[in-house]
Write a structure and sequence with these properties.
It contains seven helices and two strands. By secondary structure, the chain is mainly α. It has a two-stranded antiparallel sheet. The longest helix is centred in the middle third of the chain and has 30 residues. The termini are far apart.
């Protein structure tokens, strides 16, 4: 139990930091994509930046699995697989679908993302594979696991589908234009909504404070950015659909 207390304190500190970042991002838009600026230091090609920073999550979570101090159940193997599904997509599929002329990102942003992915992988991997009680096989029939899985895969599908629409749009157009199709007909950032739903599902399926910390961090990063994107679209395009919301259909 003495080993768990500092780890739990670390998780609560991590959540507190997410709250600070959430507030800051309403005043500062992270300088990548449409907000790129060279004032944040030397840049790196956008797709290389995504590959580097997301690869840390791909590698470190399995490391936590391997060095975990217990025999892993089949449920633990499933959680490992879910994590890898997401991050293999983010590290090796998504970056190379980005238009070659897409904007770079500052190296400092890649550095900050590496810190986040390292901390997040350690917290979630450490909890699941070392500090938590082992998930029994009947966890597969628990309503929390079932609801969590529905949310996780729903969010992942929304996220990937939205990325696909943006990718096709970027390949057929020069510069930014108004995205159409799927949830883009209702909100400006379905890709962000998908990620929030996905990691909320992870928190429910793992039923853990570590999973909750990830869901909170996801929302802390993406809610302000979705609102910034929505405002940017409305300023740039006078014909931008007035009924379209930023993140949640008909609400936000």
């Amino acid at each position: 139990m003495s080993d768990v207390t500092p780890f739990t304190f670390l998780i609560y500190s991590w959540i507190f930091l997410a709250g600070i970042i959430f507030i800051l991002l309403f005043f500062i838009s992270a300088p990548y994509g449409r907000y790129f600026t060279r004032s944040w230091g030397p840049p790196i090609k956008g797709n290389y930046g995504w590959l580097i920073m997301e690869s840390f999550a791909v590698v470190l979570f399995p490391v936590c699995f391997i060095i975990g101090n217990k025999q892993h159940s089949v449920v633990a193997y499933l959680f490992l697989g879910l994590w890898e599904i997401h991050y293999l997509y983010r590290a090796f599929i998504y970056p190379f679908g980005i238009k070659k002329s897409s904007r770079p990102m500052p190296v400092i942003i890649v550095f900050f993302a590496i810190i986040f992915n390292t901390g997040n992988a350690f917290i979630n991997g450490g909890y699941l594979f070392t500090f938590s009680a082992e998930y029994p096989i009947h966890w597969f029939t628990d309503v929390r696991f079932i609801i969590g899985m529905i949310l996780f895969f729903t969010g992942f599908i929304i996220h990937v589908r939205a990325d696909s629409i943006l990718r096709k749009l970027s390949q057929s157009q020069k510069g930014y234009t108004i995205p159409e199709g799927g949830l883009y007909n209702l909100i400006s950032c379905p890709n962000y909504l998908g990620e929030i739903i996905e990691w909320t599902g992870w928190a429910v399926a793992t039923w853990s404070i570590a999973g909750l910390s990830f869901a909170i961090w996801t929302a802390a990063n993406l809610v302000p950015r979705a609102l910034a994107h929505h405002g940017w679209y409305k300023r740039k395009f006078t014909e931008y659909p007035k009924e379209r919301r930023a993140l949640v259909p008909w609400i936000i």
